[in-house]
Each structure stands twice: as structure tokens, then as C-alpha cells.
Amino acid sequence: MYAEFSENLVTGNEMIDSHHKELIDRMNKLLDSCERSNEKSVAVKTLDYLADYTDFHFTAEEELQKEIEYPGYEQHKAQHEAFKKTIQELDQMLEEEEGPSNAFVEKVQENVVKWFYTHIEGFDRSVAEYKFMRESNERL
């Protein structure tokens, strides 16, 4: 199951949406690398590529939340930390295996792709909505 950016993932915030598109591209590259090559080094490199952009995105998103004084910041940040832990677990899983196994791919699909959809549709959309409402009230 590859990830796909669809209308139900649109938050309405240009920065967040563009980051999410990039993250989806990197998730798909990870899944593709597992399909095309069973080489451990390729999977590790691609997972690192995803992890680096994830850190960049989470930092930007958390800065936005602080800037707009988003009331759910702490809960949202905890979600990000849990996801980072998942990426670390996947990295450890790769280190212990000879290459990306079926179990690894399943874990990516369940704990990265599905988590990402749920997170965007709930947490990230609420940040974008809060920012929009806050800006609309400031204009009145």
C-alpha cells in the first residue's frame, strides 16, 4: 500500500500541505526501495531520507503552533515524538535483519503510512483550522 496525497489530506495550509506531499513521496520511495531491492543499505539510506525530512517538517509545524498559540501543542508534539520513536524502531529492525523483510514493510505501512493519514486528518487539520479561525478573527 503506497501513500497518496488526496483531497481528504488537504489542511488548507500551504506550508503543511507541501510538506505532507514531500513526506508522502519519501514514504513511497522507502516502500519502493523495499520492493525493488532487498538490500539493507538501500533501505537504511531511504529510511534516513524519510527521517530527516520528518524532523524538518515536525520542527516547522511545531514552530507554527507556537506562533499561533495553538492550545493542543503539547498533545500534538507528543504525537510527533511517538512517530519519531516508530522511525527509530524501524531503523533498529533493519539493523537486526539482513534486509527489508515483509514484516518491515508491513510495519511501515501500518505505523508510518496509516499513522500519517490519521494524524493529518485529525491533528494537522485542526492546527490549520485554528490558524485560519485565528486569522479571520484578527481581521474583524
Structure description:
By secondary structure, this protein is mainly α. It has a single domain, classed as Four Helix Bundle (Hemerythrin (Met), subunit A). It is built from four helices and no strands. The protein has helices at 14-36, 40-67, 73-96, 102-139. The N and C termini lie far apart (45 Å).
SSE layout:
Elements: H1 14-36, H2 40-67, H3 73-96, H4 102-139
Helix pairs in contact: 1-2, 1-4, 2-3, 3-4
Kindly summarize this structure in a few lines.
This protein is mostly helical and 140 residues long. Helices cover 81% and strands 0% of the residues.
Query: What is the C-level CATH assignment?
Result: Mainly Alpha
For this structure, the CATH topology is Four Helix Bundle (Hemerythrin (Met), subunit A)
Distance between the termini: 45 Å
Please count the helical segments.
4
User: Averaged pLDDT, please?
Assistant: 91
Task: Tell how many strands the DSSP assignment holds.
Answer: 0
Instruction: Return the CATH architecture.
Output: Up-down Bundle
Proportion of helical residues: over 70%
- Oligomer, anyone? single chain
By secondary-structure content and strand pairing, the structural class works out as mainly alpha
What's the number of domains? Answer: 1
H-E string: HHHH
Radius of gyration: 16 Å
Note the beta-strand portion.
under 5%
CATH superfamily: Hemerythrin-like
Q: Which spans have pLDDT < 50 for at least 5 consecutive residues?
A: none
Largest sheet: none
> What is the approximate shape?
elongated
